[in-house]
Write a structure and sequence with these properties.
Blueprint lengths: L1 H41 L3 E5 L1 H25 L5 H35 L3 E2 L5 E3 L2 E7 L3 H14 L1
Helix pairs in contact: 1-2, 2-3
């Protein structure tokens, strides 16, 4: 009886963890995609593009089936059926493909689209860590680039 209670608590904690990851990933993806869409339609003098929202889209696709499986196992105290496990594994693979392939390709598309619109990367204001990149695009003089760089340094 004690083992069953411990297993149920582990399931609840796993479900909560997967819910936080999947929910946070969905929120960051929607916020990032909305900001990018607004920037690409209004074309302000300075655009800050972060490719992190593409990685969170993949995390959402990968973690949602894990969340559903953890909830199912916790509620029913049975293992998730094999056909759902296969679909869940497929979702995890698709999520990894989104993270590792689609995100860099979409970054190249955004870069090309902004260059066509007359923007250039402001290297002093941009930052990079491993595969995560935050690029600041400016249209106009180098004074705007320096102003963006000073603003970016102040935020750090």
């Amino acid at each position: 009886m004690e083992q069953l209670r411990l297993a149920r608590w582990k399931g609840i904690l796993a479900s909560a963890l997967f819910l936080l990851i999947a929910g946070g990933s969905a929120w960051w993806f929607v916020a990032g995609a909305t900001d990018l869409h607004a920037a690409l339609t209004s074309l302000p003098p300075t655009i800050v593009y972060s490719n992190g929202f593409g990685y969170t889209a993949g995390a959402f696709v990968a973690f949602t089936p894990l969340l559903l499986s953890a909830v199912y196992t916790t509620v029913t105290t049975r293992i998730t059926p094999a056909r759902y496990q296969k679909r869940g594994f497929l979702c995890v693979v698709v999520g990894l493909v989104i993270m590792l392939v689609a995100t860099p390709l979409s970054s190249l598309w955004v870069h090309g689209r902004l260059q066509e619109a007359g923007y250039k990367i402001c290297a002093p204001a941009s930052s990079r860590w491993l595969n995560y990149r935050q690029a600041v695009y400016v249209r106009g003089s180098s004074d705007e680039c320096e102003g963006s760089a000073d603003e970016n340094r102040a935020r750090r």
